[in-house]
Design a protein that fits this description.
Layout lengths: L14 H4 L2 H13 L3 E7 L5 E7 L4 E6 L2 H11 L2 E3 L4 H6 L4 H13 L1
Parallel strand pairs: 1-4
Antiparallel strand pairs: 1-2, 2-3
Length: 111
């Protein structure tokens, strides 16, 4: 990459400075609205990292970060525990909405 590129990371920028306040606020808001939350971070290539949040009430949502390190820092700052993998207990806790079930059925029927 050329010097001065806006995609070049500099060594003096810490991970905490990279975690956007909006991302941290979104994670905090979800956790507060659902009685707490746990997160699973998935690497999604050039896109960065997907943070899947699972609330204590079974609701779930996702957020995106520029990288897994930023995602982990955002979750830590927001006070949300990051799980290392999709454990059975966490998956059993998830409750998809009726809208999600309908959209999945439409995709299956379209094949």
């Amino acid at each position: 990459m050329a010097d001065g590129s806006d995609t070049t990371l500099t060594a003096d920028k810490t991970v905490a400075e990279q975690a956007p306040n909006g991302l941290v606020a979104g994670i905090r808001s979800f956790a507060a609205g659902h009685g707490g939350a746990k997160a699973v971070i998935e690497y999604v290539g050039k896109r960065g990292a997907r943070i899947v949040l699972v609330g204590e009430d079974g609701a779930w949502a996702d957020q995106f970060a520029d990288g897994t390190d930023i995602a982990r820092e955002a979750c830590a700052t927001a006070g949300v525990t990051v799980e290392n993998a999709w454990e059975r207990e966490l998956m059993d806790q998830m409750r998809p909405s009726n809208d999600l079930w309908r959209s999945m059925a439409r995709r299956t029927m379209a094949r």
